Amino acid sequence: MRVLVVEDEQLLADAVATGLRREAMAVDVVYDGAAALERVGVNDYDVVVLDRDLPLVHGDDVCRRIVELGMPTRVLMLTASGDVSDRVEGLELGADDYLPKPFAFTELTARVRALGRRTSVPLPPVLERAGIKLDPNRREVFREGKEVQLAPKEFAVLEVLMRSEGAVVSAEQLLEKAWDENTDPFTNVVRVTVMTLRRKLGEPPVIVTVPGSGYRI
């Protein structure tokens, strides 16, 4: 899952990003609304965690722009105000969810994951395919009933492949969804991660390489 965190309190923004990365999400961070608009114009995000009171461009305007562009991106709006009227106003702007500060990180993570499941084709919270069961909320993977221990990036790649439901996913798409924008696109990190993931999942192999196209399960 690819997430953009937009928050002008840098310590909070960086802490949220670090926590979400530990949950096997690819996370970019910006600290003002202008930078947020620039990022959403370049990258495809599943979820934007958006502070409402931002410098340069207000969070409300960022939310409006995402809605106007017709992006499938889901918006979780944050605010220091917990008033019902503020929550209603945020939702009327087009936000998909609303979370007042201060918040529990576990709740933020659960809300981000729930928004990430709201794709054009709704997916169940636990993904199952080819004898593999993946639970994003518990960060657990089982193959034929046996638990498989995965590193965060391995988990993220497997989740992207599982969500594709048999469709081919290119290396570029995996890089987009499982790594943040600081990753060198010319590295072989995707190939190496897929190789390690195959080994950990065991025999017979379930990740198929489609020459010239990518990978699928």
What does this structure look like?
The protein is of the alpha/beta class and 217 residues long. Helices cover 39% and strands 20% of the residues. Helix 2 runs parallel beside helix 3 and helix 6 packs across helix 8. It is elongated and about 55 Å long. The relative contact order is 0.12.
Give the secondary structure arrangement, pairings included.
Blueprint: E1 2-6, H1 10-22, E2 26-30, H2 33-40, E3 47-51, H3 59-68, E4 74-79, H4 84-92, E5 97-100, H5 105-116, E6 127-129, E7 132-135, E8 140-143, E9 146-147, H6 152-163, H7 171-178, H8 189-201, E10 208-210, E11 214-216
Instruction: State the helical fraction.
Output: 25-40%
- Euclidean distance between termini CA atoms: 17 Å
Radius of gyration: 18 Å
Poorly predicted sequence stretches spanning 5 or more consecutive residues:
none
